[in-house]
Amino acid sequence: MCGRSRCTLRADDIPRACNRTGVPVRTINMDSYRPSYNVAPGTNLPVVRRADGSDVDGFLLHSMKWGLIPSFTNKTEKPNFYKMFNARSESISEKASFRSLLPKSRCLVAVEGFYEWKKDGSKKQPYYIHFKDGRPMVFAALYDSWENSEGEILYTFTILTTSSSSALQWLHDRMPVILGNKESTNTWLNGPSSSKFDMMLKPYEDSDLVWYPVTPAMGKPTVDGPECIKEIQLKTEGKNPISKFFLRKQIKEQESNLEEKSLFDESVKTSPVKEDPIKEMKVEQESDLEQKNSCDKSDEGSQPKRLKREPVTADDTGTQSFDKKGDDDKAKSSAYMLPNEENAKKQTKQGDEEFAADLKSGPDRRDKLDTILVKKKGNRKDAGGKQPTLFSYFGKK
Known about the structure:
This is Embryonic stem cell-specific 5-hydroxymethylcytosine-binding protein. GO terms for molecular function: lyase activity; peptidase activity; single-stranded DNA binding. Residues 256-397 are annotated as: Disordered. The protein folds into two domains: 4-245, SOS response associated peptidase-like (hypothetical protein yedk fold); 327-394, no CATH class. A hairpin with a 5-residue loop joins β10 (137-147) and β11 (153-163). 31% of the residues lie in helices and 21% in strands. It has helices at 13-17, 96-99, 182-190, 242-270, 277-300, 327-334, 339-361, 366-384, 391-394; strands spanning 4-7, 25-28, 36-39, 44-50, 59-66, 86-88, 106-111, 113-120, 123-131, 137-147, 153-163, 174-176, 209-213. The protein has nine helices and 13 strands. It is an alpha+beta fold. Strands 3-1-8-9-13 form a five-stranded antiparallel sheet, with no helix packed on it. The protein has a five-stranded mixed beta barrel with strand order 4-5-11-10-7.
C-alpha cells in the first residue's frame, strides 16, 4: 500500500515528470497545493488528467485531495479520505466504486518518493522508497467528483496498488503501481477503456528503486520537513530485517548454551571430587595384590606346595625322584604326578614296605630281598625311566 508520500515538486515540474511536454496544460485549483515532505490522505496533490470533452492533446494539472470519495456518496456524509486512498489494481474492473472510473477518469500522480512501514511486533519502522537518481516517480490513479450538501464539488483521487516486487517483499506485500516510461503513461491516460491495463499494472522490478530507514516521528502528519527523509541508523546491523531474525536466533542459542553450562557446573560442584585416576589405579592394584597374598596364605594351610620340576641330569639320576625329606616332600612331588606316576609310586611304596619287613626278618631272608630288588628295579624303570640303586634306600636313613 501507499499511505504517505513526498512531493516537493514545483507546479511546472509535474507535467514534465508525467511526460507531458510539447502540449498545452491548463491548471485547476493549484493554489491549494503545498509542497510537502509528508503528504497524507486528505492533503491536496497535483494530478495530470485529460480535459473533459476536449481532444486527446488537452490535459489538466489539477490539484485534488488524496482519498477517493465516490460520486454516489450521500451529500450529508462527512468525507473519509482514509477509506479509499488506495485501490487494488486487480479488482478495479469489478468493484462499482472504480469500475465506472476506468473509461474516462484515469490520471497520473507525480511524487519524489513514498514511505512504507515494516511491522516488528508492536513497533513499526518507516522506510523511504525512491529512485536512485532522484527523478520523480509516477503512479497510476483514478479520480472522481462528489457534491456535498452545500453544492460544493470536491475532486478526489485514489492511487492503484499491486503486489510487491521481489526486492520489497520483505517490507510489505503491496506497493503502488509505478509507470516507469512514457509509453506506459500515455497508455494509461489516452488508451481506450477496452485496453488491457493489467499488462502495465504490475510490480516495478527494475533495480534503480532504493530505500532506507527514516525517523518514526514522521508517522505524525504534522511532522513535515527534510528530517522526514533523513536516513537513520538502526540498532541492529544491516538494513534487511531478516538479519534481526538470525540475530535473535543466535542470542537464544547462546543463552541456551550458557544455561546448560551453568547446570553442568552446579552438578560438578555438588558431586564428590574424584582423586587422581592414576593414584586410584595404584591403590586398586595394591588392594588386589594384598587380597591375592591373603588368599595365597590361606591356601598354604589347606593345599600342599607345588615343586618346580627341574630337568633331569646325569648327576642326579636315580636320586632326584626318590630323595626323601619327610612327608612334606612326598606331598609336594605327588602334586605333579600323572595317573601312571601315581600307580608307580604306590607300587614303589608297597615294595619299600616289603623290603623293610625283610630287613627286620634277618639274613635268612636275603634271597627274598634279591627278588624284591629285581622287582622294584623293573617297576621304577617303568615309572620314569630311572635306574634306582640300593643306596637310594639306605643312603639317607
